[in-house]
Structure formats: C-alpha cells, structure tokens
Amino acid sequence: MNRLLIYPYSLCLLLLLLLHANSKAIHILPQDIEGEEREEFIKDCQTSSTCGGIDIRYPFRLINSTPMYCGVQGLEVSCSAAGDATIKLPRLGPCKIVHFDTDSVKIKLLGDEWAQCPLQKLSSIIPTGLFYHDYEHDNGYDYMLVNCSSETATDPEWITGPIPCLGNGSQGEWIYVAKLEASMDQLPSGCVSTGIGGNIEYYAGGPTFGDQVQGFNQMLQMDVSLNIPEWEMCRDCHEEGKHCGFSRRRNQTACLARRHGTFIAGLVVVGGLVVALTSLIILFILKKKSQKDEEIRFKVEHFLATYGDAQPTRYSFSDIRKITMRFKNKLGQGGYGSVYKGELSNGIPVAVKMLESSKGEGQEFINEVATIGRIHHINITRLLGFCTERSTRALIYEFMPNESLEKYIFSRQDKGSNKSLSMEKLLNIAIGIARGIEYLHQGCEQRILHFDIKPHNILLDYDLNPKISDFGLAKLCSRDISIVTMTVARGTMGYIAPEMYCRNFGTVSYKSDVYSFGMLLLEMIGGRKNHDPEIGRESEIYYPEWVYDRLVERQDLAMIMKMEQNDGEILQKLSKVALWCIQWSPTERPTMTRILHMLIGSSEEVHMPPKPFISHHES
User: For this UniProt entry, which segments traverse the membrane (predicted)?
Assistant: First the structure.
C-alpha cells in the first residue's frame, strides 16, 4: 500500500515546488525602477572617463564631457594637454590626482602658498573634514598649536618652535607646536592652546616629535588622501556588485542595481527546470529508500514470525518514547546507533539502543534477538524487549550502572582517575567473562560466536560483575560444527583473530572468540592498548611481545609494572593464559572450558605457552 501511495505524493510535491518557483517569478518580474535609472545613468554619464591613464568615475566627473548630474558639485576634474588630471578643492587650491581606484583617491598639492607655511595651511584646513592624511604606517603625531607670551624652552619629545611663519613675536606672541596628548598643566608658564591642530606624519627621518615638525617642510612631496562621504558610499556599492551613481528620482548618491526583468525571467525558467530535476532525483531516492525499508521490515517480521513465542516483550514506538522520557538521557553513541537510559513501567531501569535504519539492513536487530533473546546467564546482558515499527528498530537491555570495562582498565593511564581495579577484582572479572563465553560456545542449543569481544562490550553491573553485550556481529551455528563460513572479517581491529583475515592461519571457528578474549586479558593487566596507532613506527612497542619476553626471562612483572608484590602471581597467571589464547594457529588455542580451569587454578599449573607470533625484531 505504501509503495502505491508514493506516486501521487511525488506528483503533489513536484507541483508544489513548481508553483512555488512560479510565484517567485511573478513577484520579481514587474518593472525594475532602479535598473532603469542605472541604464539611464550609464548612457548619459558613461562608467568612467580617462585622463592621463587615470579612470575618472562618480562622484568625480570630467569637465565638459558629461552632464552636471554625472558628478558631485565641487569634484569637477580638468584634464590638461599634458594629460594631468587636476581638481580645485576649497581652501586647498589646485591639486593633481596621482592615484584613483575603488579604495582611495590621492592628490598632490600644487601652488606656492603651501611652501610658505605648511603648518598654517594644514591647520586651517583640517576642520573642514574634506581630506585627511594617509595613515598607512600609523607613525604620525597628533599636534596642537600653542600660543606663548614669550619665548620658552622646548623639548624635542613633545614641544618645538617657535614657528616664524605662525608668530614671530612682533605682536607679543610666539607659536609653538606641542603633542596633542600633552596635558594643559604640562605647558610652560604663559602658554595656552589655540584649539587648532592636526596630524603630522613621519617625513623628516628623525625619531622625535621635533624632527617630524621640522621635516614637515617637505609638505609638497607628500600625497594626501581625500576623505569624501560619497566616495565611501561608492566603495560599499562596488563591494555589493552594484553601480554607484546619482539618483535623480531621490536627488542623492545611490547604489543602482542592474535591471533584473529579462534576466530574472530567464533565471526562473532555468531554476524551474533545476527544481523539477532535483525533485525527481529526490523522489527516486525516497522511493529506493522506501523499498529498502520495506524489504528490511519484511525480513525482520519474517524472522519474528518464525522465532516463536519465547521472544522478549515487544513494544511500540510510543512505548519507547515513554520509557526513554522522549530520549532525554543519552548514554552514548555506538556503531549502529544511540543508547538512551530509560525506565519500564515497573520502575526497572533499562538501556534502550535505537538502531539506525541505514546501517546493518536489520541484521544486527535479528542477531541480537536471535542470540540473547532466549538465553539467561549471569555474565551475559539480558535483552528485556524490542521495538520494530516501520523503519524504527530498538532493543531494550537491563541497565548497567558502571558502564563498560573499558573505562576502568584504561583509567590507569589517567593519574586523576579513581576507577582503577585491583588485580584480584580483574581476575574475578576475567573469570566471569570466560564463563559467559563458555556458555555461548557450549551451553546453548546452538553455538553462538560473538566475534566482537573487547573491553567496550563488557558491561559491569552494580557489583562490578561482567556481562557480555553487543551481539550485532554474532553468528549462530550447530554445536557439532566447529568451522564457520564467512565472506568478510568481523570484529574490531586489534581483537580480530588472524584467520579472519587470512585462511592460511586456519579456519574461522569459536576459537576466534578465544583470540579476542586473550587480547582483552592483556589489556586488562596492562591497563593500555596492545597496539596504539598513534605511536610512531620507530618507537612502536607491541605489548603482547613485551609480556612474552619478560616471562621468558623470568622477570618480575609486578615490580616492572609497579604493582603490589602480592599481585605478582595473579599477574603472571593472567599473562600466561592470555598468551595461550592469542596463539596464531587456532588449533593451539585452548577451549574456553580449559581457559576457565587455568584461571581458577594456581599460577604453577599454567605452563609457559609457545611464542604466539612472529617477533617484530625478526620480521
């Protein structure tokens, strides 16, 4: 039924998208007034005029070449026969434009009046706000003119003078130049600020304030940057991709957008086709996903129908939301989905794993229910219920308050952690894990191969009793069949048996779990990863080989690993058992029943195993 409904739904979605695109077109197709103004401005004023290699554009205009409204009044540029672009500015007089781009306009001052008294000229024009100095190097000084009733001592660091052209004492006043930052009480007696000032850049080459004032006589050699409000606005227009010009409709400088009419009409047509094509692709993907979800759903329901009545309690998705309080408390994220803490109606705390529909094609769900749905063992986590509703699948487990073994055995590397376990407790945990694996291999109607034994998948209850969890990669086989056929390797790097990668080492069987258990034991006693991928190859230490060499040389592992001396026997026993488990040949690995006997017995009863690997030094 769902497969049939997708087609009218697809058609409705496509029509809605196209109508939405057309409504956008209707909204932007009316006459674009700003676009008309822009075209008119460009037609009358041109985008720019050239003089001596300099492009003159709004707010400037070239005299006698364009209408008056093509530039701001007072910013008319003349072009001499020699190709010099000049402009006459208020109180500055004639100036030559030496630089012109979208970022700045720079001029050079012309005329003898500047040579007579640059400080007077500069101070008189600063308040106009028409131009400012180029502060690129940020090494100038703000100054003020000081009127003194008599000649006074100077200090090159903050006051210099007198300046003859500003005041020579003939009228009882001497003009000095002082740093603007100087306080009033710092001025010499009989001196007051005139309230006139400006900024002097570093022209003279000397380091002091006095050097710069004297060097200001080179005024005619500097380029001055114009500061024009219209120019700032035009710069913003260019950054937005618009055209700067004069709007006669608004009687002011404005950013004129390009005319959109025909361009938008064409854009809408192309956009409509893109939307339609994209919609079809999305609908195709949705259809394929729907078909895949339906196949997985059929696969899961078929499994549950053949599974029988012994399966755990089935819950609806609505129940799952209530149990997890709308997924309020997230415990973690795994390879197949997220885990949330919840509580059943009878008050029992649970962990709810929400499986991602895009991963595993429902196989993890089937594996979990098929393997631990019927079995009960103190060292295997219990599956209390499940949910399968449309594409949603969830598994409900008993809650383990102490989380995983991984957080305890690797905490020894963290000096601030208080989660480390004693060697005696580690031995008890190892025995519990071994009992759980033995039950999976020998105690069920069908043999269950876990294929992912690692610290992360060993959970700890209130009393730190271990429970094997995560059966997503598990495989069922008959108890009288020891060899398992597999197309791809299963498990986690560092714990996968050699035969899973290469059949030359042997066949895949329950002995593959034994290998993983051995690697787990080594990490438990060492409190570290057997192989750390972050360690460089030259300094790499293969931990299992290091343990084997210490045992062969009869060294005291407890002392080397800085443990209590009474832990030495347990440490030695766990090390020998681990090395037996990780033999490269599956036939040389003991069964879990034999491993249990070794763990429960004394250390002397566990013989030294043969070398389980090719030495790194030999390879």
Answer: 263-286
Domain match, 386 and 500 both: no
Write down the residue that tokens 């100038």 correspond to: 140
Residue 289 pLDDT class (50, 70, 90 cuts): low
Residues catalogued as catalytic: 452
Are 519 and 580 contained in the same domain? yes
Beta strands in 223-348 (DSSP E): 223-226, 243-247, 252-256, 313-314, 330-334, 337-343
The secondary element (H helix, E strand) that includes residue 396 is: strand 392-398
- The residue that leads in pLDDT, 450 or 133, is 450
Q: Which of 364, 398, 432 is the last residue of a domain?
A: 398
* Exposure class string for 566-592: b at 16+ Cβ within 10 A, else e: ebbebbbbbbbbbbbbbbbebeebbeb
Does any domain span residue 159? no
Kindly state whether residues 425 and 518 are assigned to the same domain.
yes
Give the residue numbers spanning the domain of 22: 2-31+268-290
Q: Judge contact between 212 and 202, C-beta under 8 A.
A: yes
pTM for this predicted structure: 0.53
Residue 286: pLDDT over 80 = no
Q: Give the pairing of strands 349-355 and 392-398.
A: antiparallel
DSSP 3-state of 216: helix
User: What DSSP designation does 439 have?
Assistant: I
Q: Supply angle C-alpha 229, 231, 236, rounded to 5.
A: 100
**450 and 484 belong to one structural domain:** yes
Mind listing the pLDDT tens digit for each residue in 595-617? 999 999 988 889 999 988 765 55
In this prediction, residues 393-407 reach a mean pLDDT of: 92
Is 96 marked within a binding site?
no
Tell me the per-residue pLDDT of 203-256, one tens digit each, with 9 for 90 and over: 445 667 776 676 665 555 666 666 676 777 787 787 777 778 877 777 777 787
Same domain, 439 and 476: yes
- Residue 429 is part of a domain; what is its CATH number? 1.10.510.10
Residues 389, 411, single domain; the answer is: no
In a domain, 378, yes or no: yes
pLDDT tier, 134 (very low <50, low <70, confident <90, very high otherwise): very low
Structure tokens at 231: 């120019």
391: domain CATH number? 3.30.200.20
